[in-house]
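agent> Task received from the user: take the single chain below, predict its 3D structure, and emit structure tokens. No templates, no multimer pairing.
agent> Plan: (1) validate residues, (2) run structure prediction, (3) serialize to tokens, (4) report one or two observations.
agent> Step 1 OK, no nonstandard residues flagged.
tool_call: predict_structure(input=
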Amino acid sequence: MFRKSESIEIKSVDEIALMREAGLVVAKTLETLREQIAPGMTTADLDSIARESISGHGATPSFLGYYGFPAVICTSVNEEVVHGIPGDRVIRDGDIVSIDCGAIVEGWHGDAAISILVGEVDPRVRELSEVTKAALWAGLAQAREGHRLSDIGNAIETCIRDAGDYGIVEEYVGHGIGSAMHMHPPVPNYGRAGRGPRLEPGMALAIEPMATLGQPTVAVLADEWTVVTADNLPAAHWEHTVAITDDGPWVTTSLEGTRL
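)
tool_result: status=success, residues=260
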């Protein structure tokens, strides 16, 4: 997916503004899914809701047809970490459901993911989700002018390691984003600080830690998409798109358009 010789795309202020429009569609879609999810629904039901939301806001889904992906969102339940294909899996009380969503406005992308706790969830799973979300925001705070790319992954890893004995998935990482969904550079969720490219205004990154309740080892199912934990224990996935600006990090996929 990534080539070392590839340069990092620098966006204009107007292009970042379009990414914010796409990001707001993603944010609104994820909020709608959070509000409507309930035990007894299938993951295909969630995909239908997302499809209607994205089109209703005048955007195009990023995921549908991407390398043949057959749905608008990724729905990953419990032991599924990422890239789950919506289908007939029924959502049950106590599930953790990670939903990844992308949208395009005038050729510019937004990409974000949330983990939703359905009903009465095991407190350990609730804590896993909260730690993963906190790690995301720790990484986002490092996405500012003059910092190095690896400062993001180091902040994520430190946050998770300090919180407890959780697994950090290393095979799947964040990425640059803009005129395409996946762009240079890859953004690992671990590593030493002070390494990699220096961040500058106009860059945009999708930062997405994935943590597990058990070991970090994962496998891909026969559908060639769904990534699951090898020990069958639950995982959490949180993601935001952030633009590096002169005024600091701008989280373009948050409802509030948070600036850090």
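agent> Step 4: summary for the user.
The longest strand covers residues 96-105.
agent> Done.
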